[in-house]
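Appendix B. Raw example, untouched.
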Amino acid sequence: MSGGGKGGNNRKNKYKFSKQLKKTENLLTDGKFEKNKISLHDSPRWTAPELPPVSPITTPDCKWCGKQITDITTAICDKDGGQPVHFDCVLARITETEHLETNDAICYIGGGRFGVVHYNNPQDKRDFSIKRILEWEAKETNVNSDWRKPISEYFSLT
């Protein structure tokens, strides 16, 4: 094997290198070189940004089932008034109204939209196609809902 490199035996070079360090001067603390002087007082210190005052998150009742929404981050807007409703309530209502064929399912596809998804092979969930897209939340009207504002204060400022 070679004396240097990744897989080699580097023990014999270890002692040679440590002796060279003792002989040479440390350039970082050497006063001869002005540019090498290090001062901990000159470097700027990081300060954390001030956080805005956080209002408490309320847990309202679902408009459809009347039960309390314990996890408000999973709630979704009602189509009519923009009030929070359970995600599962919306999913159940869409499933009742849509005619589903064999190997079809209702899935949330993001952005306030649901889709009727057809699985070509029900055992392999990777092989699917979206038959229809169902717009549930209108981005312009429901993004600035009053019940979502306290939740958004808990997300990062940067």
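End of appendix B.
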